[in-house]
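Hello, quick one for you while I still have it in my head. My current little project is about how a certain protein chain folds up. You're getting the sequence in one-letter code plus the fold written as tokens. Would you mind checking whether the tokens look sensible for this chain? Here's the protein in full, and shout if anything looks odd to you:
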Amino acid sequence: MSEKLVSRILSLIPSGTEIVCALGCSSQLVGRSHECDFPPEIRRLPVCTASPVDSDKTSQEIHTQVSQRLSQSLSLYEVLIDRVKDLRPDVVVTQTQCEVCAVSFEEVERSLRNWVESSPTLISLGAQNLAGVWQDITNVAEGLNQGSNGQRILEQAHNRINAISQCAAQRASTPTVACIEWMEPLMAAGNWVPELVALAGGQSIFGRAGEHAPWITWEALLEADPEIIVLMPCGFSMSHIQQEFPLLTGHTEWKRLRAVQTGKVYVTDGNAYFNRPGPRLVESVEILAEILHPTLFHFGHQNQAWQLAPPYP
């Protein structure tokens, strides 16, 4: 059986776009989602999705917008179908992992259902854990006839992560870590993040590998009293986190936390790294390794992808 010729790719999820580019197929991309921003050269591509949720608002305001739409069974994203039709993609990369993170597989399928001019292949990403991320990369590679490049990416990723894990095994301690994925209300990171923490030589105290991020209370955070707190709100840059930092420091419990008292609270670019289940999860492990074991690791990510949070006033 001959392989289907792929010449025009549309990616509707940032991690999918990064996978396509890592496979060497960036020149075949004809469109992207409104959230796809890496690598930088893809920003010139036509935007094929939109969202009524204003991501420039505060954490609480965004949470309210999302909750209201979901309670009314309204989608958080829209596929700009006329633009997609004009682009005539052979392959559309979408996702089933999270209806809040990107346009869903069902939304894409529904939007294309009556498209009679063409029938693009849909490749859906659905990783719930680290193994799922590697499988997604394999699936995209095979769907784009790039199986050997996919194997190369995975081999390099495993080699880099294994080197970190082996070095971290020399650590004198395993610090407890709270990875915060949303600040108001509080949510801990789940899915692949607990695995990343373990690979970097830490112990994630909230969230379970392969399970969605859990909501947590301030009482639970204070009771767990982690040695290290890593902020990685979904979709937020480091500057956005800094703007919202008073949401945390304004709580009376904040100053009682051990990590705050010892100055071990860190801000990361969660939007670029931890929130995207793609090739840059390798860099995410490196970031955590630098934070958790600074005497063992230095990859040059400090002040670029992570930084120490401002001291408590």
Observations:
- The radius of gyration is 20 Å.
- Residues 241 and 267 are 7 Å apart (CA to CA).
